[in-house]
Amino acid sequence: MFLPEVSYNWSEIRAGLDKIMAVLTCALFALGVVSIYSAGKGVRSSTVVFVVRQLIWGGASAAVYIVILRVGYRNFIRLGFWLYAFTFFCLVVLFFKGVASKGAVRWFRFGVISFQPAELGKVSLILFMSRFCARRPPENIKNLILTLAMCGSSVIMILLQPDLGSALVYIAIIFAILAVAGTPVKYLTWLVITGLCATPILWKSMRAYQKLRLFVFLDPYIDPQGAGYNVIQSRIAVGSGGLWGKGFLQGTQGKLHFLPEPHTDFIFSVFAEEFGFIGGIIVIALFACLFWRMLRGAFRVKDIRAKLLCIGVVAWLWFQVMESIAMSMGLAPITGLPMPLFSYGGSSLLMVAIALALVQSVAVSPVKENFAHF
Amino acid sequence: MYKALDHFDFDHRLMYVRNIFIFSLLFLVAGLVYFQLVKADEYVDLASRNRLRMIRLPSPRGNIYDANGVPLAVNVRTFEIRAYPMDIRLDEDYESTANLFARHGIPMTSEDLRERVERQYVAPYRAISVVGNLTLAQVSDLVMDDEFSRRLFPSPVWRRIYPAGALAAHVVGNVGEITREELEDQRDLYYQAGDIIGKNGVELMYEGELRGTVGEQVVEVDSRGRRLRNVNYNDPQKGTDLNLTLDLAAQREALRLMEGRKGALVAMDVNDGAVKVLMSLPAFDPNPLTWGISAREWSALSGDPDKPMMNRVTGGAYPPGSIFKVVTAAALLMEKTVDPGKTTVYCPGYFRLGEPPRTFRCWRRSGHGSENILGALRDSCDVFFYQNGVKLGIDKLIEWGHDFGVGEPTGVDIPGEVSGNIAGRDWKRRRWSESWYQGDTVNYSIGQGYLLMTPMQLVRVYAAFANGGRLLTPRFNSVKKPEWRDVKVSKANMDIIRRGIRAVVASGTARVAGDYGVEVAGKTGTAQNSHGEDHAWFVGYAPADNPKYVAAALVEGGGSGSSVASPVVAQMLSYLLEHDK
Predict the structure, then answer these.
(1) Domain count, chain B
(2) Can you tell me the ipTM of this complex?
(3) Domain shared by B312 and B452, yes or no
């Protein structure tokens, strides 16, 4: 089914694998599992269900990671257009379902399995854009507008859901890929200015609860029992961790149920309360190293599509890391985006694993290119 | 294969973007330095003292009074016991708390309690109601018990009482606990789960004014959730009182007049739109609805085939029947289809239309002989309106119907109003996939067919004739300014119709309405009812030459309008005029 030169065999994979990137990935996942375990151990209710499920999803994600590595990123890039078209179609269907049910609909449910097109859309957008921008470099205004129209339409569909958090991730991805693919600096500046001008329109279209979340981010004390409560409690959790933290399973904010959603949205707060400044710095450093290694492959590979793919994935993970850690300190509004590799949640973990496998596959590919040259 | 940019250095850009990403992580480091190192002591302190509990103190709602200051909705203070889920979520807590209540005569098991906690659970720090509806004596008895846990918080609750009961239920409405949908739909995020909110009637319409402002009490508790001290206290602010135009004594008279019947009776001031009487029967007692009734009682009430919850005056759409003839007459005169001095129609008791002829009967089988417009109104001659209605055409008739507000809500200040129907050709094609026949026009011209109106729309139309052309917006709020728009009917033509409907009572179909000491002008009507006996209508105003009040009565299954409905309206109007200050 696949052409031999675009997939890898085991010896190629073993020779080219970026082991440091793999280890960093596993380390972050492990720290996440530790935090999820701690988050589940409340004073009045205690559960290990989340840890067990996360480990099962971790195993499944590892298997998918290996399969993708074997198939190779080139085959996925070929599928990019169709994947992207499919997710766009799903988003349109969701929009009409949402209109019919008069509320935000972000999921398709098939019995026990639920599927969130916005998650899949991140991977398919990156695959699609990498190829598209390599074929039609956004160096001139025509190609740039074409790219923006193709990618921006799914951003609009997501904003209509409304899912502001995911839409911002998409925007980060699109901007990063455009920047690396050769958009002139003049156009990039214009894009930023246009984006800033569009903000008031966005503000008008937001629902009351979304606005309240933003206000609360600016001053959590305006509504300490409602939306501001979460921000205040999370900030207390992080701040009271101090230099060394309170120790594993010793956090009081999480244990006494002051933190809402401790295993998903506020997972970093649980971690920072128990492992303190030192722990927090380690996690940030691990992410910094991970991003560095992810782009190391991009510098080595000759395939422009692969370079764009890597920066797209980095932009995505970077945005979610920035957002969820800043949010835990009350420095960013609450959007409900998970912290990559850390937060509890099977589908987002799986999508991050797929993306990291594609990047790993790029890292492996120079081996192949070298073979081909000889 | 790909058109790479030879002159463009991708790796250079890549390096830039990478550096931006990686260095921006320093922002997070700076945040951690600030919160975990610089401010650490402050937050450690806050975490150890993180024992504040916010208690929402509900505000008493504004009272609702009738036109004479008689209370229609007031508050009485009751008590409830609240607790925080985070404080009572252990099995032994459930057990001991339930035992405590059981000992003091409040039936409860630990399963009941657990079920209640789980049903109301929002977050561990959100108080839930453990028991409600307690008297002061019960609360003091409980609090005196040595085992009354300090994790339980007695707090006052305002219970809404409707002293008039069913008598004013459809106007005043009732309150109830906010539903999940209402919570999600709210615009200003004021409400929380468990709040009391207006559900219908004036209680819903004026929710914003009536509700007041909730207060808040902040208490500090110890590590086991027991109350230590009060930290902050904001008084709740009572809502604004509301004075209605409704007259409770007149309501009582209305109930007496309509006793034993199903239907509606409504009376309004013709000059300012103040609604004096609104009686919809059968009615319901709103009091049980405010304390939460059992599912069985609720389904009995809401599933009753007589629909006691429906406000028939604003929410019931009926064929207006002959009452509508004043609108047809106005259209005929204004469009000059009928010349008041000359046009006469010979009524043989039937009207034949089309080929093969379809026969439409006059209500009087023997016929009225020769009728002009005045006589046609007085005798309610159907044939006159059949023949001229077809001449006028449906589009003009509908246009004049709209001028009188038919087919649109009156804008009265209670919710749940329906628009009725005066739809024409397009609607029929869409709804029934049939084109409009002249026979439909014939039906419309005497207020039958697809035509539907509410009693409130009809009093509004007759008030416009009474006051010289102002189509008023009915209102219950006495401080609201009167609002109206002018109908396009000329003064001279109005006078003709007024003379016609005065003759109805003086010498026409509703002579019986003339026996109650007031000069009534009005019109009888029969609403065809496919489910049983026809409904009887009468709408009229009095005194005929200087009108003050207009009233409409609809008696479901009352047969023809003249014998049943017209005495009700006449007596209602005479009561109102007699008691006018």
Answers:
(1) 2
(2) 0.90
(3) yes
Report yes or no: B536 and B526 within 8 Å, Cβ to Cβ: yes
**Rounded Cα gap, residues A153 and A176, in angstroms:** 17
**Structural domain ending residue among the three candidates B196, B224, B242:** B242
Residue with tokens 């599992």: A33
CA B51 to the chain's CA centroid:
44
User: Residues of B numbered 63-122 whose beta carbons fall under 8 angstroms of chain A's beta carbons: which are they?
Assistant: 86, 89-90
Q: What is the pLDDT of residues B202-255, one digit of tens each?
A: 999 999 999 998 887 767 666 556 666 676 677 889 999 999 999 999 999 999
Mean pLDDT of chain A: 85
* Chain B residue whose CA is closest to A308: B14
Q: Is B11 near chain A, with CB under 8 Å?
A: yes
Indicate the range of A309-313, B293-297, B462-466 predicted with least confidence.
B293-297
Candidates A173, A217, A236: best to mutate against B (most CBs of B within 10 A) is A236
Q: Which of B222, B242, B262 is the last residue of a domain?
A: B242
Give a yes or no: residue B2 inside a domain. no
Q: Clarify whether residues B368 and B263 are in a common domain.
A: yes
Q: Quick one: three-class SS letters along B247-273?
A: CHHHHHHHHHHHCCCCEEEEEEECCCC
Q: Give the nearest partner residue to A135 out of B3, B25, B46, using CB atoms.
A: B3
Which residue range is the domain that position B379 belongs to?
248-578
Calculate mean pLDDT across residues B371-386.
91
CA–CA dist B318, B537 (Å, integer): 10
B34, part of any domain = no
> How far apart are alpha carbons B569 and B432 in whole angstroms?
37
The arithmetic mean of pLDDT across residues A3-21, rounded, is 78
Asked if B31 and A329 come within 8 Å (Cβ–Cβ), the reply is yes
Of the listed ranges B117-126, B346-355, B379-388, the one predicted with least confidence:
B117-126
Q: Verify that B316 and B375 share a domain, yes or no.
A: yes
pLDDT of res. A131? 93
In a domain, B177, yes or no: yes
Q: Strand B196-198 relative to strand B175-177: parallel, antiparallel, unpaired?
A: antiparallel
Q: What was the pLDDT predicted at B383?
A: 92
pLDDT bucket at A296, cuts 50 / 70 / 90: very high
In angstroms, the CA B281 to CA B263 distance is: 5
| Residue B292 and residue B231 share a domain | no
Which residue in chain B is spatially nearest to A207 when comparing CA positions? B187
Say if residue B278 is in the same domain as residue B237.
no
What value does the mean pLDDT take over residues B66-89?
86
Residue B94 lies in a domain: yes
Full-model pTM: 0.60
CB contacts, 8 Å: A222 with chain B: none
Residues A271, A283: contact at Cβ < 8 Å? yes
A59 in contact with B, Cβ within 8 Å = no
Contacts B31 to A, Cβ<8 Å: 325-326, 329, 331
> CATH number for the domain including B166?
3.90.1310.10
CA-wise closest residue to A263 among A167, A320, A163, A346: A346
A142 close to B (CB below 8 A): no
Preceding peptide of B543 cis, ω within 30°: yes
Q: What stretch of H or E contains B182?
A: helix B180-185
Q: CATH number, domain at B548?
A: 3.40.710.10
Contact B90 A44 (CB under 8 A): yes
B261 and B171 within one domain: no
Cβ within 8 Å, pair A325-B17: no
If asked whether residues B227 and B255 sit together in one domain, one would say: no
Domain identity same for B140 and B109: yes
Instruction: For residue A162, say if its preceding peptide bond is cis, omega within 30 degrees of 0.
Output: yes
- Quick: pLDDT tens for B164-215: 999 999 999 999 888 877 877 776 667 877 788 999 999 999 999 999 988 8
- d(CA A129, CA A84) in angstroms, rounded, equals 9
